[in-house]
């Protein structure tokens, strides 16, 4: 926020490289000249306080309203406000524009951070910095128009359609949360009901049996902790973030790993039985930390490992396989698990014969059945025996694929 002694010639020369910038007059408290970087338009505003709220009121455009006239008009309005009257009643007012878009976005994301997954938080921060703050950081949050959102998203879509979708989703999230928290001056969400520029299809990538062998053997070349993280993610069919946050205390004496709500996407406890192959990996890991299976760095920034991106890039490159992600391990499990078993032809693309709702239970997808909804004592242990049987079959399947190089159809 620039503050200077405005002069007639100085006002004429004022310009900005920002999308919009406010210049405050040192001589007249509350008087501001708003300059648009895109159009060069200059507008006089007065800030005052009435009825316990900060307000800004437009009083005219420059040069139609000179500096001297703007100062006189500002003093008149400030006198009314000092008497307890609201000069804005019945006039064009911008309320609480002290809250910039950048400040609003920062407050909203900071408030959401404790309940947001690490990967999602990082993506939002990246989009905010690279796409939104670049244009709107110093703009009043309530001044962003629907047309401006559309134009920004369309520009991004021309180079990166998926990023345009993510950017639009973030704008909606920021404004929806700000409205719920009653940010002063906000009346609506400028992105409300805007359709994403691109319809995204769901990923269908899963690893075939020979690809499981390739990936497994490539993973074995990694350092012990990363190797164990990737292997456990495949063998348990759980999300890699949950595996990274695994605690020794969460594995009970029945070999069931109970994932706590704060590291499970569904924000509820989830019981994941461990197959023999997974238990062997855990048994071979050194307990360098008494709490976390995969502790973080010694500097204490994170209590456990939070990122596997660099290791994943190494494994991808070494495997030589088409693009795949660690999250595809979950789809790999469900695809092979729910295929019909074919014991007469073990090398056919036969699966494990697991019922789809059991496979979904292993993955932690909530089943909206009467049984699940009514089973309230320990819902995380719903179908626990069936899940154990499925995951034991899966562990044997992965071991066979890795050791024998089973052919795929």
Which helices and strands, and how do they pair?
Layout: E1 2-4, H1 8-13, E2 20-25, E3 31-36, E4 42-50, E5 53-62, H2 67-82, E6 93-95, H3 101-112, H4 118-136, H5 146-159, H6 161-180, H7 209-219, H8 224-236, H9 240-244, E7 256-259, E8 270-273, H10 276-284, H11 309-319, H12 328-338, H13 356-363, H14 370-374, H15 384-404
Parallel strand pairs: 1-2
Antiparallel strand pairs: 2-3, 3-4, 4-5, 5-6, 7-8
Helix pairs in contact: 3-4, 3-6, 4-6, 5-6, 7-11, 7-15, 8-10, 12-13, 13-15
Describe it for me?
- There is one protein chain.
- This protein is α+β, with helices and mostly antiparallel strands and 409 residues long.
- It is built from 15 helices and 8 strands.
- The chain has a 6-stranded mixed beta sheet, covered by helices on one side. Strands 7-8 form a two-stranded antiparallel ribbon.
- Strand 4 and strand 5 form a beta hairpin.
- Helix 3 packs antiparallel against helix 4, helix 7 packs across helix 15 and helix 13 crosses helix 15.
Provide a compact summary of the structure.
This protein is α+β, with helices and mostly antiparallel strands and 409 residues long.
Strand content: 5-15%
CATH superfamily of the largest domain: Intergrase catalytic core
The DSSP helix count reads 15
**Which CATH C-level class of the largest domain is it?**
Mainly Alpha
> What best-fitting shape do the alpha-carbon axes yield?
elongated
Number of domains: 3
